[in-house]
Amino acid sequence: MSERETSERDSLPADVQQRTWATGDYRSIGARFLLAAELLCEAARLRAGEEHLDVATGTGNTALAAARRSARVTAIDLVPELLAHAARRAEAEGLTIGFRQGDAEALPVPDAAYDLVTSTFGVMFARDQEQAAAELLRVTRPGGRIALACWTPSGYMGRMLALNTKYRSPAPGTRPESRWGTTEGLRELFGPDVAIEAGTRELWWRFSSPEEHVRAWCRTYGPTVMTVESLDAAGRESLVADLTELVHELNTDEETVLMPLEYLEIVIRR
């Protein structure tokens, strides 16, 4: 294999991830996850003046939450459009955050540089999960913390992501993203030399109806948009039906959608 072919092969996962999250409109999705970011900073006991890195920052929810708490924040994401949106939000609030484009599997920062490293529904989507976990450990100072919010396999998001694979096969060897949302998966990823504290939380999803939620989801959430675009008309109809059935199953309200989104809130100490 030539050097050029090797380079193209190695860059493919990042290219696919960048295209996935640039598809649709994650801004409207991320706006619904604000509470998880705020709670994660509280769970991590973030202190003023700490060096903080937010990985796969997306629209910047956790980076902004940390900056409001007087941390010294760097935020990294693959998608330039999302970084630009996050930077506009920071400017509007008068917050200082260093935004950088980069891959969670090869973070462009030095070893042991941060007191706190976070990711809110972000790093769990890395293609090479072991490499992403190793990178989080690499950049965390001895005695520092890694704080994560990750979807569980049993919640709506975990089940929805699993449903996507029914219609669009993942790359060979790919592990479910929701592996990060289990204590067993975290032990496999981070090894025995860390202390892991984890507990489940819920966000609540609100839409006027299950059908309206599914319509919006298929337009805005990158992984689902990519799946929809890969299907023929019959496949799209089947996926929409399965998603609608899932929402009906988990919905707690008879008139609208009031649906729990279960996730695991995690603090890992080196």
From TrEMBL:
Gene3D superfamilies: Vaccinia Virus protein VP39 (3.40.50.150). GO terms for biological process: methylation. It comes from Nonomuraea rubra. One of its GO terms (molecular function) is S-adenosylmethionine-dependent methyltransferase activity. The lineage of its organism: Bacteria, Bacillati, Actinomycetota, Actinomycetes, Streptosporangiales. Signal peptide: none annotated. Keywords: Methyltransferase, Transferase. It comes from the Bacteria. This is SAM-dependent methyltransferase. Residues 53-147 form the Methyltransferase type domain. InterPro entries: Methyltransf_11, Methyltransf_Superfamily, SAM-dependent_MTases_sf.
